[in-house]
Amino acid sequence: MLWLALQFPCLGLEVWDQIRPAATAGDKARPAVLMEQNTVLLCNGPAIAAGIQRGASLATAHSITGDLVHFQRDAERELARLEFLGETVYRFSAQVSLEPPDALVLEIGGSLALFGDPAELARNARDLCRSLGHDTRCQLAATPGAALAMATAGVKRLTDVPLTCARLPDAERYLERLANMGLSTLGPLLELPEVELGRRFGPELVDHLARLTGRRPDPKRCIELAVRFDQSLHLLEPIRDKETLLDSTGPMDRLLADLEQWLISHQLGVEQLIWTFSTHAANEQVSMPIAFARALQSRQAFRNVIRLRLEQISLPEDILTVRLEARRLVPWLGGNHVLFALLPGQQVEGALTAADASELIDQLRARLGNGACSRIGTRDQHAPESAWRLVPAGVHPHPVPTRGSQRSGQSLDRPADRPSDRPLWLLDPPWPTERNRLELLRGPERIQTDWWQLPIRRDYYVASLETGARCWAFVDGQDRWYLHGYFG
User: Fold this and answer.
1) Which residue has the higher pLDDT, 448 or 84?
2) Which DSSP letter does residue 185 get?
3) Is 330:268 a contact under the CB 8 Å cutoff?
């Protein structure tokens, strides 16, 4: 087995970056610290450069620099983010385990047949986490504990791991005593006899070291994937303009980035998004549903439609909470690529593809409303003028069953043997005409309804008018001729 550990040294601060205003979050030069019980637990790079050390008090940190930003540790928020990151890297392995408070381990030995080089897989996983705003250390090892210890310490050999980074069980009991013995790294500790080590420090430490080296199994509990995406960002400061909401560092874009990676990991696409914008205590909120003509997965595709839709609605004056919920999830099917240049049915250059059409429909809906785009669907009726209906564009319609659906004539919701027998342009109502104006080319085709419906008995012909136009005409039971449509 081969294990990959991903450790997030600044996770406690990064979860606060998710909800900081865009302008502040983009200011990387401002020192920030994470506090726990009035003690500095984490420092960002500018805070370390200013001289702030872990373990200092908040008063000491503020005395070093007056531009300091501090946050209280939120273990619940950190765990939720760690669970999300675990689902995100699920694409690399089906065995992903959480290692609270700030790490994940993945068994990747079974994934190498697909991904190949383990070092390349590790780089891809690290780059993915960094794209979501998380500094990441990664390391490979034969056991999960060894990989985790080396990633935490930032070293490449288990024997070089400092004992403070070895994640020893109940470490406070051991570290001072081990330091008094002159032990500071795992190398000398692993050389000590297990019997003597167990007699002095107890079986827990011996068992932990045996798991690190693989002398004993170290089973892990794998995560279970969430079946829905529903995330909220509760902002530290209110947002008052739409541009900040959808900025590249704004809350909407951050949620879209999470959604994109969640969809990829779950191999899903989404056909509808529900945005909710709330003020303080949610006493005022605005919902913004967005439906797509086809399932989407790309953040950029979402942004193009959302920006248009955002322009059409009125939002609360001070937005403090942004929520994103994914609805109508469907299995994701990637696009096919043509192998040869001249295959039958290949799309000609410059023609509108299905993806282009769906994007156009989404943009029209976002700008003009959901009812702006429709397509023609079929109905189970004999009369041609009643055999069609309007359905929302992008939705594949199903025939609407009606009484008397058994046919005594041909119904137009079934493709004709010859598509040219059906015109694209129907006249409503049919126009009376004279027989001598028509040159009959093909027919007749009888369409007759059953007795419990509005009685219709027609013989249809494909004909040519005296002007040369190709048309669709019929004669009824009283020998009256009508013009019912034109062919393109």
Assistant:
1) 84
2) B
3) yes
Distances in Å between the Cα of 11 and the Cα atoms of 129, 234, 261, 408 are 11, 17, 18, 71
- Distance between CA 15 and CA 79 in Å, rounded? 10
Report the residue count for the chain: 488
CA distance 10 to 248: 21
Judge whether 83 and 98 are in contact, CB under 8 Å. Answer: yes
414-423 mean pLDDT: 55
List Cα–Cα distances, 200 to 154, 173, 174, 189, in angstroms. Answer: 29, 12, 10, 13
Sequence letter at residue 296:
L
Instruction: Report the predicted TM-score, pTM, of the whole model to 2 decimal places.
Output: 0.71
217 CA to centre of own chain:
36
| Residues 212/146, Cβ–Cβ less than 8 Å | yes
Round to whole Å and give the CA distance between 176 and 161. Answer: 16
| 93 three-state secondary structure | coil
Task: Classify strands 32-36 and 69-72 as parallel, antiparallel or unpaired.
Answer: parallel
Peptide bond into 455 cis (omega under 30): no
Structural domains of the chain, with CATH: 3-30+67-213 (no CATH), 230-331 (3.30.1490.100), 384-486 (no CATH)
pLDDT tens column, 179-219: 889 999 999 999 999 998 889 888 999 999 999 999 999 99
Listed ranges 286-295, 407-416, 473-482; the one with the highest mean pLDDT = 473-482
